[in-house]
Every structure is written in C-alpha cells, then in structure tokens.
Amino acid sequence: MTNEIGINSLENNARERLLETATELFAEKGYAGTYVREIVEKAGVSKPVLYYYFKSKEGLFYAILEWAAAVQQEILGEVFDASGTVLDRFIFFYRRVYEGVQQYQSLYKMIHGLIYGPPQGAPEYNYLRYQLDMVDAVKRIYADGLSSGEIRKADAEEVAFLVLSLIDYCLNLEKIQPERSDPKRPERLLELAFQGLSV
After folding, report:
1. DSSP string, 122-184
2. 2 assigned to some structural domain
C-alpha cells in the first residue's frame, strides 16, 4: 500500500511538472516555438511519459487550457460566495484575480498571449471563453446590486468593460512599469468609478 502511494505520488508529480514546464515554455515561446524535446528535458521526464499522460503536444496544450479554466472557475466561485456591497465584491474580485495572476504567472501570460497576442500556431480553441466568463461574473455581481437597490441601472455590458478594463490595465502596468505599481490603485479606481453608479 505504501509503495503504491509512493508510485502514484511520483506519477502525479511528473504530470504536474509537465503541465508547469510546458506552460512556462508556451508562455515564453508560443505554441509553435516550443518543442516536445524541450518540454521533457526541462521537466526531467522522457517523451513516453508525456505521451502516456497527454498523447501529444496538442493534448498537453489542451490540458493546460482546462487547468486554466479550472483555476478561473475556482476564483470566480470564491467571488460569487463573497458577501458585502457590490463595491466590496468587486474589490475582492480584483484581489483574487491579482493573487491568481501572482500564483500562476506563466499560466496568465500564456492565456493573455493567446487572447491578445499574435497567432502562435496553436490548436483551435475558444480562447475568448476566459474573457467571457469574467464579463459574465461582473454582470452577475452587478445584477445582484441592481436587484437589491444598491446601485442604479446602467448597461451591464458597459459596467463589465469598466471593471475589467480597470483591472486589466492595472495588471499590465505592473508587468510593464513595476516601479509605478500600487496594489491599492485598483481599489481606489473602483471606488471612484462606483461614485457614478451609487444611488
């Protein structure tokens, strides 16, 4: 029994190393610019191990995308469960997204590049699903505030773009000009924006 647990742990470890290593390489070099040989060498496994878990480079790529979706849904689940005012929940939303980006930097960079960057020769996939899920999350929180009479009626799509543009700008600013980074800025900007929505 102990030996089986040890073997399962080693197998899971190899799978996780492949996911993390491939994510780093895809984020840095793009899908087409990353080769299976590089992935397995950096992960410290053999090609047959990669093929055992993922069948192919494409299979590994899709596994990473599903992992990204699972991480996003976990964060959004926490946001939906959060209590407080709409502004409180949007500030919590930003904090959780920020923490997620810090924790999964290569994953964020990879997905961001696939959505906003040039084509990478990557397999077909609905890359916009990540963005659309974020839009839907903002709309859901906004709808809660509207139904409780906490905020005034506005175009929900515009509210989503306002909140997400603000968050995205602050995240990008931190990457491009870290010397101007201020973790509290998004919270202040959200407060400023919500002065116009408040009843």
Report:
1. PPP--TTHHHHHHHHHHHHHHHHHHHTTSB----HHHHHHHHHHHHHHHHHHHHH-GGG--TT
2. no
* pTM of structure: 0.85
Q: 10 Å Cβ neighbour count for 4?
A: 8
Q: How far is CA 141 from CA 18, 41, 42, 86, 95, in A?
A: 36, 45, 42, 6, 15
DSSP for residue 44: T
Q: Which two tokens stand for residue 15?
A: 């799978």
Structural domain harbouring 144:
59-194
**Vertex 84, ends 79 and 85: CA angle to 5°?**
100
Q: Is residue 152 domain-resident?
A: yes
- Answer yes or no: are the C-beta atoms of 27 and 110 closer than 8 Å: yes
Q: What is the mean pLDDT of each run of 10 residues along the chain (199 residues)?
A: 43 88 96 96 96 97 96 95 92 92 93 86 91 95 92 91 89 80 83 71
Q: On the CB side of 151, how many CA atoms lie within 13 Å of its CA? A: 22
Residue 106 lies in a domain: yes
Helix, strand, coil shares, percent, the chain, to 5: 75, 0, 25
CB count within 10 Å of CB 173 equals 15
CATH at 80: 1.10.357.10
